[in-house]
């Protein structure tokens, strides 16, 4: 069975420099398109799913190049809204040694910043669609973008779609006066699948995360503590069927460990812990995680252990790929799962 998935968000132009240069160092930038929900769309398309990406993009050469990049990966863009003055951008400073990476956003006044309810024909878009994916980032950009997101999830819920929400908390984006906890918590009430790392779950729920000290490949997680934790998450989000908690430990900038926990209808599923060295590019790792989970959950709905194993394997592979998109196939992920 072929599943159709719709993702909604702002695609950005990412500027970065070679050789771990700082933003103010050197004279040349490399540009590529990315953005959380677009990253998810590309991953899903490469995994063989039918995907439509909905956004608002300026009618310009840059905007057309952006849409062409998405179409190159087989993504349907028929309901992209053309309008506004500019594509949002961000500047990425890669990490090095003990210096963390840095992101500087330039999104105010972008085409997506001014998107609003009524701009997108959601009932037409959602016809014959199984799943709608959105994230907290769209709610952080502007009040009108948040309103457009809630319009979409309410119609999707009314039409019986499965809704997937990536919490995607970005502290530096919440500037228009809304309380991130309140908005994210409401968005998650509509969701069947919820994904986030431990800090994002803490912001959205108000529940302190469980500290994992220096997670290694052989670390034993406190499963009793996580059962109590997910009991509280289920109390807060009783309509959610699956919750994913991503766990990452950054030992150095290019040496990470990565795992996660899946709560699915009352049971907890734990994959292995990957030891990743060297990390080439950590951007989009969470997007790769949630995209692979969506694919596995739709394809093998009765196998939660496979779902989390597949999602984690895809996410750890993204660390080896430059740029925002996870350019791997289902066969490569399955091979990685078998090889360990």
Q: What's the short story on this structure?
A:
By secondary structure, the chain is α/β, with parallel strands linked by helices. The chain has helices at 36-46, 61-72, 122-125, 136-141, 143-158, 180-189, 198-205, 223-236, 285-299, 304-318, 330-339; strands at residues 4-8, 12-16, 30-34, 50-54, 56-57, 81-82, 89-93, 102-106, 131-135, 162-166, 193-197, 242-252, 255-264, 267-269, 274-276.
Kindly describe this structure.
The chain has helices at 36-46, 61-72, 122-125, 136-141, 143-158, 180-189, 198-205, 223-236, 285-299, 304-318, 330-339; strands at 4-8, 12-16, 30-34, 50-54, 56-57, 81-82, 89-93, 102-106, 131-135, 162-166, 193-197, 242-252, 255-264, 267-269, 274-276. The protein is of the alpha/beta class and 340 residues long. Strands 1, 4, 9, 10, 11, 12, 13, 14 and 15 form a nine-stranded mixed β-sheet that branches. It has a four-stranded mixed β-sheet with strand order 3-2-7-8. A hairpin with an 8-residue loop joins β7 (89-93) and β8. It starts with a strand and ends with a helix. The model has no long low-confidence stretch (mean pLDDT 95).
